[in-house]
UniProtKB/TrEMBL annotation:
SMART domains named among the record's database cross-references: AAA (SM00382)
Record-given protein name: Fe-ABC transporter ATP-binding subunit
Sequence ranges assigned to domain ABC transporter in this UniProt record: 3-238
Keyword Protein biosynthesis set for record: no
Lineage, top ranks: Bacteria, Pseudomonadati, Pseudomonadota, Alphaproteobacteria, Hyphomicrobiales
Entries under Gene3D superfamilies matching the protein: P-loop containing nucleotide triphosphate hydrolases (3.40.50.300)
Organism: Nitratireductor pacificus pht-3B
Length: 265
């Protein structure tokens, strides 16, 4: 499964938010980080890929087939989008909510294989103990892990995660991204995760796409992108890419003196 985005332009009314966004071919099994400042257009790109908004021009091809040419049902089967703010139906248990996500593919008969798939997904994310809890009674971090489970259980070809770890503690940031990365490899899916934490991006992403004001300003192998001056310029901070004693890359960032806090576009 390969995803290619070519010259994608998206507007809200008269306001153009994505400008001719293009990517290299994003290969099956890869974990791509979508990075960029607030209001750069990351969620807008996800919404366009997920079919929630229509692109003004450009193409999004999955294995050579346009996403826009797929039926609604087929697109929902192939592309799963976890928005930043995920809703929840408070009346359901965690298990039921993950099963319901799986059943969006169609039909209401529940088979043993589907029950097993839900259980396996909750196990993969180490949250089987939450199965019987009402979904409305979860902590913010627990609800975020359940939202990831609702995506993973559908085994899509393209998974779009908008800030999937923003509510998670350090342990769970690492464990959830590790599992998602493993599942991407195992299932040959393309995962694109919008991440504000560049050190998580450094640790988990195979490649990065850097967006600024709706333009792709850099794309490529993670360490190469993080070492570019474009990182500091885009975030208006001073950065350097360092390597820890254990060999992990991390971004050391400082706010330059006399630069005011930037207004969000
Ligand atoms: N429904 C909408 N109507 C009009 N403008 C919108 C709408 N949604 C987003 N925008 C604008 O589009 C721009 C890009 O927003 P988007 O949510 O894609 O950014 P983002 O990179 O995901 O930001 P953040 O990191 O803050 O979540 C912003 O200027 C935003 O105000």
């Amino acid at each position: 499964m390969t995803l290619i985005i070519d010259k994608l332009t998206v507007s809200y009314g008269n306001r153009q938010v994505l400008h001719q966004v293009s990517t290299e071919a994003l290969a099956p099994g890869s974990f791509i980080g979508l990075i960029g400042p607030n209001a750069a257009g990351k969620s807008t790109l996800f919404k366009a890929l997920g079919g929630l908004i229509r692109a003004r021009s450009g193409t999004m091809d999955l294995d050579g087939k346009s996403l826009d040419a797929l039926s609604r049902t087929e697109r929902a089967r192939q592309v799963v989008y976890m928005p930043q703010a995920y809703g929840c139906n408070a009346a359901l248990t965690v298990f039921e909510s993950v099963l319901l996500a799986l059943k969006q593919e169609g039909g209401w008969r529940v088979g043993g294989d589907q029950i097993a798939r839900v259980s396996a997904t909750l196990d993969t994310l180490s949250i089987p103990h939450l199965s019987d809890r009402p979904i409305g009674a979860l902590s913010g971090g627990q609800a975020q892990m359940v939202a990831v489970a609702q995506c993973l259980v559908r085994a899509p070809r393209l998974m779009l995660l908008d800030e999937p770890t923003s509510a998670l503690d350090l342990h769970h940031q690492l464990s959830i991204l590790t599992r998602v990365h493993e599942e991407a490899r195992r299932g040959g899916m393309v995962v694109i995760a919008a991440l504000h934490d560049l050190n998580l991006a450094a640790k988990f992403c195979d490649r990065l796409i850097l967006l600024r004001n709706g333009h792709v300003v850099a794309e490529g192998e993670t360490r190469k992108v993080l070492a570019l001056p474009a990182i500091g310029e885009t975030y208006q901070v001073t950065t350097s890419l360092e390597t820890s004693r254990s060999g992990n890359a991390y971004v050391d960032a400082r706010l330059p003196e006399r630069i005011p806090v930037r207004a969000v576009a």
